[in-house]
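Weekly sync, protein design subgroup
Attendees: M.S., D.O., the rotation student, P.L. (late)

Item 1: inverse folding check
M.S. brought a backbone from last month's batch and wanted to see whether the design step gives back something sensible before we order anything. D.O. pointed out we never logged the input encoding, so this time it goes straight into the notes. Structure tokens as presented (545 positions):
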């Protein structure tokens, strides 16, 4: 019986790249569904930028507490579980999971109570948006459910079953988008298009979706539990540490990782406090909230879209590097790090350049009735490439156990951003654009620090030509072809259709340039699902020898 369950278990495991692709597809779907939700809310009469300010102002505070109880937890648990499984300690891996459920259940409940009872103070004194009080109260139960769900996700990630996390997150976003539309439309009917109640309805949809996601993960665990072996082989030494010692071990890793996530959320909270509070005396409260709504609900969402592709690498790298490091497998470590950083660059460069070139056109395409923010989006686009590489390196460092380094780097970056925001936002002609410049400065400083530590941590065989010159050349080719097509066709088919065509051309040209320039090695192509067949086709086309 044990042999059958172990066979089933091996079949369910995913390779590093399979896990990455599963998470990547999931993140893309999540971002698309999230964009649909944003498009609906922003373009919905009675909601718009003002409604987004109320909704997103409360959501950023929720995201901060969410970071404490959840975002750092999956990586911490996946790291501990993967290390145990790498040395055959199945019993120890499952024990970590059970203790983590109890520990973060308590922490999650504390976060829920804190958010609920401090909603009034936070909305008035911190955000400067009193209407967000109801939003915060409605969101508060989600902190507990996400804390528990994140332990399940971390456990399955550590077992190389990324599909559990991917499915749960996609499931949550689907219901969040669907219920947002349903609940907001009900609020419109019941309250005669009251913006505050519409924002509260959208928030209620988020809480419901979080609970649905928890139910999915719990049912998945119950179903799979019979196939998960938790007994060690005779040759494997049992982990005899006490409950207290394991809790300490979990917190020792999860707290710094959570702090990294908190600091990332603080980037947005810095904007939510500085933009509204600094611009209100200058432009008036209504205009200030509208400017913040443009930044938080349109620009930030669009800039975050490329991150969906890269989150998969950052998530999968933690258990992958941890397991390889536990077995002292330096070859695997180097291959996965160099490949992940290369892909991050290949995602980030074209997205940065493309969003910079077509900032105004993209906003007009997606938000035809609220298209302000072109300059802001163009400036903010430079954070894409910086954040992507920073995100990947943070995942690598966390996998090596250097969980404090990203915290230090992000803290220094946050301080730099605060200074930049305070100095630049009050300047006439800059205003909210100062927040975008502050983000570039903050993430740039953080990236420099984590990269320096990475180079000291592991000896990497980085090729300057492959990681910088070739990607830049491919991006320039893409930009030239895409813009040429855009200028040619916009004169007779309109800007919106021309933008779509230009973006499609950009994607195609960049993909061709990557192949022609041979940015990926033969081995890296073969690492992909059905990579042998892909390489065979490229060889027949004489693109690879």
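Designed sequence read out in the meeting:
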């Amino acid at each position: 019986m044990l042999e059958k369950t172990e066979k089933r278990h091996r079949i369910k495991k995913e390779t590093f790249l399979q896990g990455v692709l599963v998470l990547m597809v999931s993140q893309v779907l999540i971002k698309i569904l999230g964009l649909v939700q944003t498009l609906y809310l922003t373009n919905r009469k009675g909601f718009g930028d003002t409604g987004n300010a109320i909704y997103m102002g409360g959501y950023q505070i929720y995201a901060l507490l969410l970071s404490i109880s959840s975002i750092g937890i999956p990586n911490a648990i996946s790291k501990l579980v993967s290390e145990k499984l790498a040395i055959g300690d199945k019993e120890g891996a499952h024990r970590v999971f059970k203790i983590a459920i109890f520990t973060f259940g308590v922490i999650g409940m504390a976060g829920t109570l804190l958010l609920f009872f401090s909603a009034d103070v936070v909305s008035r004194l911190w955000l400067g948006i009193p209407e967000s009080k109801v939003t915060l109260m409605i969101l508060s139960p989600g902190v507990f459910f996400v804390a528990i769900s994140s332990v399940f996700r971390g456990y399955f990630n550590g077992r190389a079953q990324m599909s559990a996390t991917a499915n749960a997150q996609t499931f949550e976003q689907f219901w969040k988008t669907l219920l947002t539309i349903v609940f907001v439309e009900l609020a419109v009917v019941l309250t005669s298009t009251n913006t505050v109640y519409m924002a509260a309805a959208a928030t209620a949809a988020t809480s419901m979706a979080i609970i649905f996601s928890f139910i999915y993960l719990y049912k998945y665990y119950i179903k799979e539990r019979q196939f998960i072996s938790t007994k060690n082989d005779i040759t494997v030494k049992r982990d005899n540490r006490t409950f207290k010692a394991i809790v300490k071990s979990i917190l020792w890793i999860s707290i710094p990782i959570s702090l990294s996530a908190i600091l990332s959320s603080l980037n947005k909270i810095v904007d939510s406090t500085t933009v509204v509070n600094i611009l209100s005396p200058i432009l008036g409260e209504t205009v200030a909230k509208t400017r913040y709504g443009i930044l938080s609900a349109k620009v930030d969402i669009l800039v975050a879209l490329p991150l969906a592709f890269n989150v998969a690498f950052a998530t999968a790298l933690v258990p992958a590097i941890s397991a390889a490091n536990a077995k002292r497998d330096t070859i695997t470590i180097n291959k996965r790090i160099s490949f992940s950083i290369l892909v991050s660059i290949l995602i980030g460069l074209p997205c940065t350049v493309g969003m910079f070139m077509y900032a105004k056109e993209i906003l007009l395409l997606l938000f035809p009735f609220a298209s302000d923010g072109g300059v802001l989006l163009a400036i903010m686009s430079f954070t894409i490439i910086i954040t992507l590489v920073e995100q990947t390196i943070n995942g690598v460092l966390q996998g090596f156990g250097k969980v404090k380094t990203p915290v230090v780097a992000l803290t220094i970056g946050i301080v730099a951003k605060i200074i930049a925001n305070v100095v630049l936002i009050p300047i006439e002609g800059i205003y909210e654009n100062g927040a975008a410049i502050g983000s570039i400065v903050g993430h740039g400083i953080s990236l420099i620090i984590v990269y320096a530590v990475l180079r000291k941590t592991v000896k990497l065989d980085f090729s300057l030509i492959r990681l910088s010159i070739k990607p830049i050349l491919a991006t320039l080719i893409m930009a030239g072809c895409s813009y040429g097509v855009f200028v040619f066709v916009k004169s007779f088919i309109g800007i919106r259709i021309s933008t779509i065509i230009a973006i499609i051309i950009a994607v195609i040209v960049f993909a061709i340039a990557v192949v022609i320039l041979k940015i990926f090695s033969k081995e890296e192509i073969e690492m992909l699902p059905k990579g042998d067949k892909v390489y065979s086709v490229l060889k027949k086309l004489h693109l690879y020898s």
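Discussion: Residues 463-545 form one domain. The chain has 22 helices and no strands.
Action: P.L. to compare against the previous round before Friday.
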